[in-house]
Amino acid sequence: MDKKATIYQIAEQAGVSITTVSRVLNNSPLVTEQTKELVRAVINKNHYSPNAMARGLSLSKSKTIGVILPDITNPYFSALFIEIERYALEHDYSVLLYNTLYGSFSHSFSKTFDECDYFQMCVEKRLDGVIITGGQLDKDDISKEYKQSVNELCKSLPVVIIGQEIKGIDCLFIQRGLAKGIEILTEHLRSLGHQKIGFIGGEPGVRVTSERFNAYKDALKQAGLPYNPSYVHFSDYYVNDGYKAMQNQLKAERPTALIAINDMVAFGALRAMTDAGVAVPEDMALVSCDEFFFGAYTVPRFTSLNQQNDYLGQLAIVNLIKKINGQNDDKTVIVHEPKLVVRESCGKGL
User: Fold this and answer.
1) Which among 197, 298, 203, 210 is positioned nearest to 256, based on CA atoms?
2) Which residues, including other chains, have CB under 8 Å from residue 262's CB and lie 6 or more apart?
3) Residue 3: which CATH number?
4) 120 domain residue, yes or no
5) Distance of CA 237 to the CA centre of its chain
6) Which domain holds residue 1?
7) Which of 119, 127, 213, 260 is the most buried (most CB within 10 A)?
8) Residue 125 within a domain
């Protein structure tokens, strides 16, 4: 390694993350003395020093923003990213995507970066601002270290998070109305005469699952409908998860209607029901919490919730640019509600 060594090479040789190297350079108290000595030894050995020119240019605008998300193959994130990019371009900003591969999709990859490393990349590339959605922010239990990393990023760059508010993280959150969406779906199914309503999909320990599941139980209670644990089958957020969860559901006591965590799970569930000779919506109604592009072309077409990604993307960009331009306000949370789209999969009622 020569004098042109990068921070990535320093981190790899020292066996630590990029964030740790950066903290050592800034003499952060979050790093142990033993680790500091190790990293400094590697730095000295390779005559590494931060790019002074980049630091000198830090006050200029790059007209580039970063978007950090966990899985670009997930239709929710890909659709949201497209809308973010659309509105960014309208404001003359380019977008740099960081697909962190966080979660089950990353299992086939031999090497991935920690999300905190991506935060440091955004700072080093002198981005004007960052939008974060999904990943560790969606976990029910978020580590103190991760919260500190997000707050450090917020001190360096303007940040907007598309996700549920997290206590201890000081930045702007744009929340989706997760509970409200479940209320809308439950009420619609109840109006069609359904009293046995189930819930399928979603990974336990993830906030989007927990909040929707809790809202599902609350909505049943408010409607005077029974909660039956045999109507609930958690899995994950992809097609094969819906298929497997539906296979388990068909072996248990059956509800007359199911709420799927998203259209991919609903699609897998639909295939499992079709294979088992169960007709939708005649034998069982099926609705979804997240509408994806293909939901209007399945047979039957899915009744679902339009999360209005175009508006979410616009909200994120407009508020991020305000922050970039120093136009901060007192708001820390903006709540955005979904819209019910009624199609064939819920039928016309019992």
Assistant:
1) 197
2) 76, 201, 237, 288, 289, 290, 292
3) 1.10.260.40
4) no
5) 11
6) 1-50
7) 260
8) no
Encoded tokens for 233: 């089958």
| Final residue in a domain of this structure, among 13, 35, 50 | 50
| Nearest Cα residue to 262 out of 181, 167, 155, 346 | 181
DSSP state letter for 37: H
Average pLDDT for residues 54-58, to the nearest whole number? 43
Strand order across the beta sheet in which 129-133 lies: 94-99, 64-69, 129-133, 159-162, 172-176, 333-336
24, part of any domain: yes
The neighbouring-strand residues paired with 197 are 257
Overall domain count for the chain: 2
Phi first, then psi: what are they for 177, rounded to 5°?
A: -80, 70
- The two tokens of residue 254 are 């059956």
Does residue 281 have a cis bond before it (omega within 30 degrees)? Answer: yes
Distance of CA 286 to the CA centre of its chain: 24
Which of the listed residues 9, 29, 50 is the one where a domain comes to its end? 50
Residue with tokens 């940040």: 159
Counting every residue written for the chain, the total comes to: 350
Q: What digits encode the pLDDT tens for the residues 161-218?
A: 999 999 999 889 999 888 999 999 999 999 999 999 999 999 999 999 999 999 999 9
Task: Kindly tell me if the per-residue pLDDT of 109 is higher than 70.
Answer: no
Has residue 270 been placed in a domain?
A: yes
The H or E element that residue 179 is part of is helix 178-191
Contacts of 346 (CB under 8 A, 6+ apart): 188, 189, 192, 257, 281, 285, 286, 287, 303
- Please name the residue that has the structure tokens 């509105």: 87
Backbone angles phi, psi at 68, to 5 degrees: -110, 120
Q: Which two tokens stand for residue 169?
A: 């993280």
**Among candidate residues 7, 331, 49, 280, the one with its CA nearest the CA of residue 172:** 331
